Amino acid sequence: MNHYPFCDPVPARPSKGIIIYTESDVIYLPEHQVFKKSCSGPCNCIASFDGSSDLLLNLNNRYFIHYSLLYEYSELMTMSRNTLQGFIRAKNRKLKRLGR
After folding, report:
1. Is residue 54 over pLDDT 80?
2. CA-based, 20 to 30 A from 38: which of 13, 19, 72, 86?
3. 64 near 26, Cβ under 8 Å?
């Protein structure tokens, strides 16, 4: 098993700012940054933040999708055969109506 020390995390991306997509909002956090840690063993493995402890799916260390949004989509897809593109359009209309 690899050992990842708690010291010396380095930025996972060169730029700051993350975007979180939730069931009812899109949250932009311009000052937040995702970090990664290197393994102290001979393998040089890297541990990135996966987001599961915060119920977030990490897409590329900048975009995160909350599990509630994934659940909402999977439920609509299985019950009404809603496509991903249709889901995104409906979600954008809903956010626009809410003023977000």
Report:
1. yes
2. 19
3. no
The span from the CA of 40 to the CA of 81, in Å, is 47
Q: List 19's β-bridge partners, or say none.
A: 28, 63
* Count of CA atoms in the C-beta half-sphere (13 A) of 82: 16
Q: Quick: pLDDT tens for 74-86.
A: 888 888 887 888 8
Determine the average pLDDT of the residues in 46-52.
Answer: 80
The SS3 of residue 80 is: helix
Confidence (pTM)? 0.70
Phi, psi (5° rounding) for residue 92? -65, -40
Kind of pairing between the strands at 63-66 and 18-21: parallel
Give the C-alpha separation, 60 to 82, whole Å.
25
What is the C-alpha to C-alpha distance for residues 66 and 21, in angstroms, rounded to an integer? 6
